[in-house]
Predict the structure.
Amino acid sequence: MRRSLAALFLLAAFALPAAAEEPLLVVPAGTPEQVVFDWDRDRCAKTDIPDAPPRAFRDASGRVHLMASHQDNRQFVGPDFDHLGHPCTVIYQGAQSADPAAFDDRQWLAAFQTDDGRTIHALVHNEFQGNTHPGLCPSHKYLSCWYNSITYAVSTDGGATFRAPPSPANVVAAPPVPYDGDAGKPVGYFQPTNIVRGRDGAFYFMFLSNGIPGRPGGVCVARSPSPDRPGSWRAWDGSGFNARLSGAYDRDLSPGACTGVGRGSLFELGSLAYDRTSGLFVYLGAISIGKGDKAHPPGAYYATSPDLVTWSRPVRLFTSPKDPKTRYGLFALIDEASGTRDFSEISGYGDLYLYYVKFDLTRQPYARVMVKAKVSLAAH
């Protein structure tokens, strides 16, 4: 994610009637921003930047771990969200393998699931950047040779370190086509949301499909009975969760492809949560590149669903201030008082925050500030 994926994809606006009991969330005008990380003040290295939507979990001792990392994955740790330190230790990093079938090049820890705070299952955004490997990208262009997958890593020490099994045991979702060498556009599965447990006891996450031949692309949903089994995830294929995601390099299985659950072309992925108050899933998307349109200016939007397949119309939560020197992106909702260790549920809204990153466009690609703003529940 050397640049925000929003620069590359404009995604799924949901176009179904609004749910009658969906929450009405707002960030009131004038709500103060609280700085979580300032690159000028807090960085451990030049590349120590927030480069993914923030995620969090609590370890077995009750400490909060917050992650919004670059490919040299570092974290924020503290007794609560208001007292987070930023250790400089890199807790996970891809091997920068030149083999696309290894699914182990540049990697971003992107989502977490834990029940006990000791074993932490993670989804990883894995970029095979062909332009960085000699002879594998004739055009030498990053975007033309970007081949993406979602892989698995695990921590058994409460989030202090993560490791991944070797391929193919690390594959969660890989494209059903092999690396092309110069496809001319990013290809694969990108940017997983939070892992959320459904009412049926299964686990779900949403992700982006792009550049798959014969597929329109969009937002997809995958389900698994257990997140510690990377090969068990199946994607929605239009009629059920049937599509295998093992990818073109798995010789033992016939790879499938997901079917998008969104319609239109407006929103990028941010976060996913289950709202215990309404009984609905809440998806947060955003427009962070370009001007959007009259009805959808740049900012954060949320939609709700009873089943992760049918979605309400998006509701604007936050409008990005007009500032030619600043871009707003990498939005996520986090309920800091969530009853789940992995912050996959929201309820009550008293401690619900919108996290996002402010990009200083005059000093790119590194000058960034991560902030949060409190979200309120509006009257129906």
Notes: The chain has a mean pLDDT of 91. The chain has one helix and 24 strands.
